[in-house]
Amino acid sequence: MSARRAIRSLTIAPAVALMLAAALSGTATARRLRFSEEHIRAVWAGANFEAPFSTIRCPMTLEGRLLGRTFDKVPGGLIGEIIRARIREESCTPAETRIVAFNGFENYNGGFTPNSLPWSLTYEAFRGTLPNIGGIRVEAERIRIGVTNAGCTAQYGKAEDHITFELFRRNEGIISAVVPVTGENILNRFRVDAGTLCPTSAAMSGTGDFMVDGGLARVTVTLI
Question: How far apart are the C-alpha atoms of 222 and 224, rounded to whole Å?
Answer without folding.
Answer: 7
